[in-house]
Here is the input.
Amino acid sequence: MSMDFLQIIEVSPRDGIQNETKLLSTKQKLMLIRKAHEAGITRMEVTSFVNPKRVPQMADADIVAQKHPQTLDAIGLILNRRGFERAVAAGLNEVNFVIVASETFSQRNQNTGTFETIKIMETLRTPPQQNIRLSVTIGAAFGCPFEGEVSISRLMNVVEAVMFYQPDELALADTIGVATPRDISERIRIIQRTYPDIPLRLHLHNTRNTGIANAWAGVEAGVRRLDASLGGTGGCPFAPNATGNIATEDLVYMLKRSGLPTGIDLDAAIDAAKWLEEQLGHSVPGQVMKAGRFPMSQNC
Here is the structure.
């Protein structure tokens, strides 16, 4: 990947709708995926293989995973071995395994402790003929809704345990939106110094209105992979007051105006965000979808 190119991983079909009271149909989810893909998104979290009793919005994960566009690099989020097996059966070639940095949140999110969850990775690397990319997201990497601050030493202990299993990519998630640009820069650079070869990704929530600033701090620190969600939708069902991700179209606008290519059509992303807002039946947080591009005409 070019050092000038920023890859945006779309998460609206998963994180964007998992905390919504309105359940979108399978048809609506597939349309959302198609619209995002047509806007230029090439890599996307299309669903999560979780217990449908706990997250009913993901009850049709197996069908969605099987019917996504074949030209899309589709990711399925997993929390355990059972989720991995479902992703394999659905034909996905990448899974995103979530590990939560704090013990209390890990128990609430996955019913097991942080380091017990990490041990599951041993079973995800076999048999080798499955040849599935394994990305790992460390949730609550900057703060926990139950324990408060997550120290750098705690985070690095988790990172060290994860890296033992050699994931293909490592993401830090600001699950409850508490990070500041300094936090982003500091933690990214420590990980880069310790593990210089691992591709890093950021998953940022905008709960306290620092998400876009944090994304820019990540870019300046060398991160070239950023999660985002159309319209700024999203939130974790197991984290109090968790709100949406940074908006895809807002991020595209900032990067485009800064001369950093993403391969995403801003107008198409705005249209997709507006479509998602209509399907959800309520206003979503995205700003560029309301204000529009600048200059207002592409010919200006």
